[in-house]
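Project standup — Tuesday

K.O.: blocked on the structure for the chain from last sprint. Re-posting the sequence here as requested.
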Amino acid sequence: MESLPLIDSVMRLITIGQMALIAMVIGRGAAPRRFRVSAVALMVSLIAFMTVSTPLFDLSEGACWRVPELLSQSAPLLLWVFAHYLFERELPRIAVVAVGVCVIGCWTYFSWLHTGNATALAVVGTVQRVVQFGPVVLALRIAISQWGNDLVEKRRLLRAVFVGLVGCMSLAELIKEVFYGFFGSPPLFAIGFAAAGMVLSAVVGAMLLQADPDLLFDPAKPAAPTPMLTPSEQVLKAKLDAAMAGGIHRETGLTIGMLASRLAVPEHRLRALINQRMGHRNFAAFLNLHRIADARVMLADPTLVDLPILTIAMDLGYGSVAPFNRAFRDTIGQTPSDYRRTVFVEKS
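H.V.: unblocked you, prediction finished:
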């Protein structure tokens, strides 16, 4: 048992190194800036947590130690922010309030930590843990709800596994902290947590990191052009086109699993067709292509000029007007109201 703290620290050091490498690779990548910033921030917060929560960490006095402490306790909130950008969702405005609550709560907790007031520390710590449950649960909810949307199998697996495992580890840590405090931890729990972090970072690193062939050997020959659709793919595409022409894309809550069931085809074949052959990144983009095309026709129809935008959105399968406005603006560059106005001005 005496060697457990040393083993724990070794695994945490390995995890920290892997997370730092992942952060560097993502930060230098070509992904959208807000995604890269959120990913690097999450990695930094996880590194800070793995550092300050080790049994061998000697918590020192002084304001400078508030920085890694604050970063370590920001992981649940940053996981929630990261989940939004990872699954290509808009971050709600409440995120600003959440950041303020997180900063004030963490700073208050660690300010009380050195006062010796056990009662106040217990109350503040418990409230903080309960508040931190919210972002973690919401991040897991995003991962679960968006599981079927992504059409790229490897990316879908990486997204769900990363957010899911980090979320579950965060929940386990928060539950532990409610009963044992931030620095108190059963030895076996600490070892298990460190091992889980090491395995998770290794798996994510293996999926993200690749050697640059130009640095190691002569580049391979250019890949052959993508062949035409196979006979079975042609039949599947014909069935898909017929279903879309029949308006199946207007059904609210339609998922790729439901569509595959309606077409009586395996889901993985439908995913491959829509992504690899038709070039759509995710199922939502595929649906939006057809829904926005229908919306443009409806908005330009003189007989529907008085039809409310909300009614059009609901008829096209959107649960509310906000996602319809966002999808339309991202595709056309105008809001539905502006588009309708422009069309009728040009006709006059």
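K.O.: great, moving the ticket to review. The chain is about 70% helix and 0% strand. Residues 4-211 form a domain with the Rhopdopsin 7-helix transmembrane proteins fold (CATH 1.20.1070).
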